[in-house]
């Protein structure tokens, strides 16, 4: 392992510089990734909301997954659970900032009033509620050594993705102007 990746022995300033460089690389990769997912959605006909939720959501959740797995492996279960909730809260805060300052009085949903996005919002509320319940109550039951909450959250996620795909491009909910 190189000296730069042994963060404990580095100075605070060197670690901060490594963090900033990593953040810039992630920012650059994220902008490229969003363009490629948009292109992929157009070429495959999957729809932007579905491709965004599945591909962009999956790719941008990889750091949270790594952090959560590392925290779980080291025995810091509370850190692992609250990391996931903190990530969702941060994303919602970013959306609120965009809504308040960038869009200048126009709601974010004005630009994409499509049923799959509304469905994604509802599914997010449900999944965050389930995750909050899991963190709050702890694991009450297990099936063959696997907790019920992880199974329930996985099934709810798969169901949410299926519903978003099903409602992609559904004209049932139109806009009125």
From TrEMBL:
Superkingdom assignment: Bacteria
InterPro entries: NaCa_Exmemb, NCX_ion-bd_dom_sf
One Pfam family per UniProt: Na_Ca_ex
Gene Ontology biological-process annotations: transmembrane transport
Localization annotation: Membrane
Domain Sodium/calcium exchanger membrane region: 16-164
Protein name: Sodium/calcium exchanger membrane region
Record organism: Rhodopirellula sallentina SM41
Taxonomic classification: Bacteria, Pseudomonadati, Planctomycetota, Planctomycetia, Pirellulales
